[in-house]
Design a protein that fits this description.
- The complex is a heterodimer of chains A (about 120) and B (about 110).
- By secondary structure, chain A is mainly beta.
- Chain A is built from no helices and 11 strands.
- In chain A, the strands form 2 sheets. In chain A, strands 2, 4, 5, 6, 9, 10 and 11 form a 7-stranded mixed β-sheet that branches. Chain A has a 4-stranded antiparallel β-sheet with strand order 1-3-8-7, with no helix packed on it.
- Chain B is mostly beta strands.
- Chain B has strands at about 5, 10-15, 20-25, 35-40, 45-50, 55, 60-65, 70-75, 85-90, 95-100, 100-105.
- The chains are: A mainly beta (about 120), B mainly beta (about 110).
């Protein structure tokens, strides 16, 4: 059974860089898009961006200047970096498989930005 | 960006009720629309894709319809497991955008 497992630091100070990793277990990495979505506490979903198996990316313009999504196919992993975080970046961050439709999701990581 | 607007924001219903949630897009998205269910503390779960196609493993009481700018998600007979928040999402263009969500509560 294919699963996504994600991890990364859960508590950051303002101006630091958020860094999360998402790994695929039990399935192939190739041929898919891999997305990141976030959800502030008690609020709705926001698409952050995506990367495909060849490394081509698409980002939300609202975050584009601060976001980088990269992949490591040898490890079946992709990573999200978000620079210069503020309290507004406090959210649960999810990785997911898919571009248009996100079929498989990670468990989510709560990232809190606080001084 | 394409703005997605759901109505209502909250819906109170009883087990066995027929429930309909509406999603409107700010411009035509053809049939490039998905519906997700999310329960507290859990990741979203894909229910419907391409406006009306049922994802594998999703109960047949869920159905979707619409095209262009107006879409609906219908639950034909609400079950206890269906009390959750539902989101629509367009994938006609970038950035992908979600509706604000509809919370289905117990009446």
């Amino acid at each position: 059974q294919v699963q996504l497992q994600q991890w990364g630091a859960g508590l950051l100070k303002p101006s630091e860089t958020l860094s999360l990793t998402c790994a695929v277990y039990g399935g192939t990495y190739n041929g898919f898009y891999w997305s990141w979505v976030r959800q502030p506490p008690g609020k709705g979903l926001e698409w952050i961006g995506e990367i495909n198996h060849s490394g081509s990316t698409n980002y939300n313009p609202s975050l584009k200047s601060r976001v980088t999504i990269s992949l490591d196919t040898s490890k079946n992993q992709n990573s999200l970096k978000l620079t210069s975080v503020t309290a507004a970046d406090t959210a649960v961050y999810y990785c997911a498989r898919g571009s248009g439709t996100m079929v498989l999701w990670g468990q989510g990581t709560l990232v809190t930005v606080s001084s | 960006d394409i703005e997605m607007t759901q109505s209502p924001s909250t819906l109170s219903a009883s087990v066995g009720d027929r429930v309909t949630i509406t999603c409107r897009a700010s411009q035509s998205i053809s049939s490039w629309l998905a519906w997700y269910q999310q329960k507290p503390g859990k990741a979203p779960n894909l229910l419907i894709y391409k406006a009306s196609s049922l994802e594998s493993g999703v109960p047949s009481r869920f159905s979707g319809s619409g095209s262009g700018t107006e879409f609906t998600l219908t639950i034909s007979s609400l079950q206890p497991d269906d009390f959750a928040t539902y989101y629509c999402q367009q994938y006609n263009s970038y950035p992908r955008t979600f509706g604000q969500g509809t919370k289905v509560e117990i009446k």
